[in-house]
Write a structure and sequence with these properties.
This protein is α+β, with helices and mostly antiparallel strands. The protein has a single domain, classed as TATA-Binding Protein, CATH 3.30.310.70. It contains 5 helices and 5 strands, in the order βαβαβαββαα. Strands 1-5-4-3-2 form a 5-stranded antiparallel beta sheet. Helix 1 crosses helix 5 and helix 3 runs antiparallel to helix 5. The chain is globular, with a radius of gyration of 15 Å. It comes from Metallibacterium scheffleri. This is DUF302 domain-containing protein. InterPro entries: DUF302 (IPR005180), TT1751-like_sf (IPR035923), UCP021774 (IPR016796). Pfam families: DUF302.
Length: 131
């Protein structure tokens, strides 16, 4: 495990996992602002076939507003990215950006507190998925 993400591997299909992640994020107050289909982009731009790989840009408006009020440049670190990807063995892995680690770069006590609160929410999403 790295120091900037935490992850779970699930037993559902890729598409079912994307739906489950989106629903679980919504339960914790997050919306998905962006969907980057990395596999489709690499295929279209470079002709490289790859297993499904999707980046979801998740945002909780309440926390985003607090972070922006604390440091207007923090938008460069937002939103919280969630990666859903299919591994070589067909299992699906969901990796969450660790907001405490990333927002800790700002070195601002209020932002640090927010990062830990958001991490707890994303860890609950991961727990729901791993059941």
């Amino acid at each position: 495990m790295s120091n900037y993400v935490f992850a779970v591997t699930v037993r559902t299909s890729f598409d079912d996992t994307v739906q489950a992640v989106t629903a679980a994020l919504q339960q914790e107050g997050f919306g998905v602002l962006s969907r980057i289909d990395v596999a489709a982009t690499l295929e279209a731009k470079l002709g490289i076939a790859q297993r499904p790989y999707l980046i979801l840009g998740a945002c909780n408006p309440h926390y985003a507003n607090q972070a922006l009020r604390a440091d207007a440049d923090i938008g460069a670190l937002l939103p919280c990215n969630v990666v859903v990807r299919e591994e070589a063995d067909g299992r699906v892995r969901v990796a969450f950006m660790d907001p405490a680690a990333v927002l800790g770069l700002v070195q601002h006590s209020e932002v640090d507190k927010l990062g830990h609160e958001v991490r707890e929410k994303l860890q609950r999403v991961a727990k729901v998925l791993s059941v």
